[in-house]
Amino acid sequence: MTVDETLLPIEPYPCPECFAGLVRPRVITYFTWLGQELITVPNFPAWVCDVCGKREYDEQAIAWLNILLDPNAGKSTFKKRKTHLRAKNHTPPQRPALDS
Ligand SMILES: [Zn+2]
Description:
Ubiquitin-like (UB roll), binds zinc ion, four-stranded antiparallel sheet, alpha+beta, rod-shaped
């Protein structure tokens, strides 16, 4: 009986890189850059070759992550504003002459 295999939706497959290993589902820590920030995602699903270490990431998980990390998504709350310090307390712009 091979009941346990039904728990994994995807079975290990031969590695297309080294042709020697098997690429197996694992959870890894995924690293990606979001602008200047390095994002680490623990427990990320991936397939890893047990011989050459080639990694393939779960497409659905990547898509999900891209939604989470979409720069347009959390813009208002997540953005640093470093370049906005130049607001001098200057005199207001000249009014147009009103004596006509
Ligand atoms: Zn391999």
